[in-house]
UniProtKB/TrEMBL annotation:
Stretch forming the signal peptide: none
UniProt-recorded name of the protein: Ribonuclease J
Origin organism lineage: Bacteria, Pseudomonadati, Pseudomonadota, Gammaproteobacteria, Oceanospirillales
Matching PANTHER family: RIBONUCLEASE J
InterPro entries noted in UniProt: Metallo-B-lactamas, RibonucZ/Hydroxyglut_hydro, RMMBL, RNase_J_2, RNase_J_b_CASP
Top-tier EC class: hydrolase
Keywords: Exonuclease, Hydrolase, Metal-binding, Nuclease, RNA-binding, Zinc
Organism: Saccharospirillum mangrovi
Length: 450
């Protein structure tokens, strides 16, 4: 199956009909462009008689494109979240293609490649934020967006057969705390770029209105830290460096010392510093020294908001962390949302914390806002569709209900046609438009067991 010069195809192998494990292919003129190469975390069902209790880290099965690796023009990583970048160190040997990323994303990838001994083996091309580069027959422009991690990019793919705007993950945030505020002008200009299709994030398409801004969270977080009588532990996503910056400012204003617990937090912060994205000069206390701090003057920022068994917060709840033990009256703040599929793990974690007489504050029930999603709600989707004016909308990055909601927003926003599908469906964008169902049988490969 080889695309001709008149063809423009979109073939998702992961991330379409699900949230996570993004792996997208674009075909044109005998070549394939890969956009993102991520993982998902698959927890075994309690009803499975073969359940070993292990969590599997899985990626989309790359067999279709690995069998055509000589035709791969390149792999573009839109941002450094695990569901977009996490499989690269494990699948690259089967793809053997150049990789393109902006500086922060490239730095995170470099560290991941180092973990598996591939530094220097993978050709990683660093593209400036907002840059433009030819990758085989594809003319690629990186469009700066806002999300819950530094340097998120939408990808404008130009070909003689047609043009695609691949949004990846995004939101409209005018106060992102870290990085540049959302700039609408580049997306308004896409209306004049004759966009054949917009392939769009559907994660929050069922939610009305607008997503909250990172800049709106300081007051709520400060309230819960300031009113805590003892030690405060905040669980958040390690990749959300804007949230980390907000927490550091809250700590400074409430006169608390800060301790980071979790390797991924230190890794993300180190990457941001190394590429010049981080200039906060807050002094962090080493975890082994936190026992010397007064409890009412301590703010701990920890990994493990999704109940991960090896993460810092789960180890604290199990009283197995080498540097700290929770005390009755400590306050744990979940500055995060529950990712679908993680409900039971988080419930077990909360119960363990409550047994220790630790107060738990969750973002879903908190009186004041302490978390903001990184994905667009319905009004943001509508505005983006009205700016870009694509001929065709293809919702991805969501389950069926999310993609159908996205398609409905696109239709109401004046997009002439909407196509929805699943992993393995071939979306033909030019010269004719339509979908061939299950051209490729989608599958998963296990990368690691935890």
């Amino acid at each position: 199956m080889t695309p001709r010069s008149s063809d423009l195809w979109f073939l998702p192998l992961g991330g379409c009909g699900e949230i996570g494990m993004n792996f997208n292919l674009y075909g044109h003129d005998g070549h394939w462009l890969i956009v993102d190469c991520g993982v998902t975390f698959e927890r075994p069902s309690l009803l499975d008689p073969n359940n070993t209790g292990e969590t599997r880290i899985e990626a989309a099965d790359p067999k279709f494109i690995a069998d055509r690796k000589d035709d791969i023009a390149g792999l573009i990583i839109t941002h450094a979240h695990e569901d977009h970048i996490g499989a690269v160190p494990y699948l690259w040997d089967r793809l053997r293609c150049p990789v393109y990323a902006t500086p922060f994303t490239a730095e995170i990838l470099r560290r991941k490649l180092g973990d598996v001994g591939l530094v220097g083996a993978v050709p990683v091309h660093i593209i400036p934020v907002g840059g433009r580069h030819s990758v085989g027959p594809f003319d690629i422009e990186w469009l700066n967006l806002t999300h819950s991690i530094p340097e998120p990019s939408g990808i404008l793919i130009r070909t003689p057969a047609g043009n695609v705007f691949h949004t990846a993950d995004w939101k409209i945030d005018h106060q992102p705390v870290l990085g540049e505020p959302f700039d609408a002008e580049p997306f308004r200009r896409l209306a004049d770029a004759d966009i054949t299709a917009m392939v769009c994030d559907s994660t929050n398409a069922t939610l009305p209105g607008w997503s909250a801004s990172e800049g709106d969270l300081y007051a709520g977080i400060q309230h819960y830290v300031k009113t805590a009588p003892g030690r405060v532990i905040v669980a958040c996503f390690a990749s959300n460096l804007a949230r980390l910056l907000t927490l550091l400012r809250v700590a400074r204003d409430t006169e608390r010392s800060v301790v980071l617990l979790g390797r991924s937090l230190h890794n993300m912060l180190g990457a941001a510093r190394s590429v010049g994205l981080w200039d906060d000069d807050s002094v962090l206390v080493r975890s082994r020294d936190m026992g010397y701090l007064p409890r009412d003057k301590t703010l701990v920022i920890a990994t493990g908001s999704q109940g991960e068994s090896r993460a810092a917060l789960s180890r604290l709840a199990a009283n197995t962390h080498p540097d700290m033990a929770l005390d009755a009256g400590d306050r744990v703040i979940f500055s995060s949302k529950v990712i679908p599929g993680n409900e039971s793990d988080i419930q077990r974690l909360v119960k363990r914390l409550q047994i220790l007489n630790v107060e738990v504050i969750a973002s879903e029930t908190a009186e004041h806002p302490i978390h903001a999603s990184g994905h667009p709600a319905q009004d943001e989707l509508s505005v983006m569709y009205e700016w870009v004016k694509p001929q065709l909308a293809i919702p991805v990055h969501g389950e069926e209900k999310h993609m159908q909601a996205n398609a409905a927003v696109a239709k109401a926003s004046g997009v002439p046609r909407q196509l929805t599908g699943q992993n393995g469906d071939l979306f033909m964008l030019a010269p004719q438009r339509g979908v061939r169902r299950q051209v490729v049988k989608p599958g998963r490969v296990v990368i690691e067991r935890q």
